[in-house]
Specification:
Blueprint: H1 8-15, H2 21-55, H3 73-82, H4 89-92, E1 97-99, E2 104-108, H5 112-127, E3 142-144, H6 151-170, E4 181-190, E5 197-200, E6 206-213, E7 216-218, E8 221-226, E9 237-239, E10 245-250, E11 253-257, E12 260-273, H7 275-278, E13 291-293, E14 301-304, E15 310-316
Antiparallel strand pairs: 1-2, 2-10, 3-4, 4-12, 5-11, 6-10, 6-12, 7-12, 8-9, 8-11, 13-15, 14-15
Helix pairs in contact: 3-6
Bound molecules: 2-oxoglutaric acid and fe (ii) ion.
Length: 319
């Protein structure tokens, strides 16, 4: 039997249900494999990005560069309101749908035409022989948008120019006005691939989740408590996808996706990060982050140089 001795790892695994030596060893092997996977991840991603940029033949080159014409007119109206001098939360809530008291909001984001062209481009990529990474540790199908080269020309301007004025009003306490990096990917569910997604919280201060299509039934999202504020009996709400519309929610809001019953579901996910917030406390391990250097945005942490100017973008090595 495993005894809850002084080893914090043993204690943590015991608290999560490991009872016998065999269970403990299996869990330990899985953890070691996951640590190795994460260490390799950055290098592999840089290599894939280079190959894709050199060899991939885009089908819809226009979708790589964000244009106002991709955005729903009502979304542009919301952004206009949020950037007006007397905008406030109360005024913004007249334009967008709110769900319970969980600070989850739905708003139009893209045009239907853009969603169709975007999914068609992603299918073209999927069917190509290019190297592909997994969106995250839970989704096995989908596309990492930075590897496609979409960060600089699409996701960063979307975050800075359009989403940040909105999140500044909705989530001021989570760094909504200073979301300074992101991880963006598209998740895909179909009957012979992933069907659903288990309950989790995101490595993000604020998440945008946009339904891109195609045709599917079921597959609703469900949301429980905010992870820093769990209730003794969690209350879940279910939210349907509305094509070309996005949900904004706190990254720490516990959520998951129910299984689809038919068709294919593609959603754009943008995990947005505020270095100001997470430099103080890593949202994944709830500790002061211990940083290791990373490529690109890393996990959205920053380290200041002598002049106190944030420069490197780092990973928390603890979680
Ligand atoms: O399936 C979805 O639409 C949600 C995906 C999600 O929550 C995530 O990837 O973090
Ligand atoms: Fe998520």
């Amino acid at each position: 039997m495993v005894h809850p001795g002084a080893d914090p790892l043993q204690r943590a695994l015991r608290e999560r249900g490991c009872r016998s030596d065999r269970e403990f060893e299996t869990a330990l092997r899985e953890i070691e494999a996951e640590v190795q996977r994460r260490k390799q991840l950055i290098h592999q991603s840089v290599e894939r990005k280079a190959v894709i940029s050199k060899c991939y033949k885009q089908k819809h080159p226009e979708v790589y560069v964000l244009q106002d014409s991709f955005l729903a007119p009502d979304f542009l109206e919301i952004v206009r309101y949020c950037t007006s001098p007397d905008a406030d939360l109360h005024g913004l809530l007249r334009y967008i749908e709110s769900f319970s008291d969980k600070r989850i909001y739905r708003l139009p984001v893209f045009t239907e035409e853009f969603c169709q062209a975007f999914v068609d481009e992603l299918e073209n990529f999927e069917q190509s022989d290019m190297p592909k990474g997994r969106p995250n540790s839970m989704n096995n199908y989908g596309v990492l948008l930075n590897e496609l080269g979409m960060d600089e020309t699409f996701i960063t301007p979307l975050r800075e120019k359009y989403l940040r004025p909105i999140t500044a009003l909705l989530y001021p306490d989570l760094g909504g006005s200073c979301l300074d990096s992101h991880k963006a990917f598209v998740v895909k569910y179909s009957l012979h691939e992933d069907l659903d997604l288990s309950s989790h919280y995101d490595n993000a201060e604020v998440t945008l989740n946009v339904s891109l299509g195609k045709d599917f039934t079921e597959g609703n999202l469900y949301f429980g408590d905010f992870n820093q504020d769990p209730a003794p009996v969690p209350k879940y709400i279910e939210i349907e996808h509305v094509g070309a519309h996005g949900l904004l929610h706190r990254g720490g809001q516990i959520h998951g996706a129910l299984p689809i019953a038919s068709g294919e579901r593609w959603n754009l996910i943008v995990w947005m990060r505020s270095s100001t917030i997470r430099n103080q406390l890593c949202p994944m391990c709830n500790k002061k982050p211990e940083l290791v250097e990373a490529e690109g945005f890393g996990d959205g942490f920053t380290e200041s140089n002598e002049d106190d100017v944030p420069e490197t973008v780092d990973l928390c090595s603890l979680w």
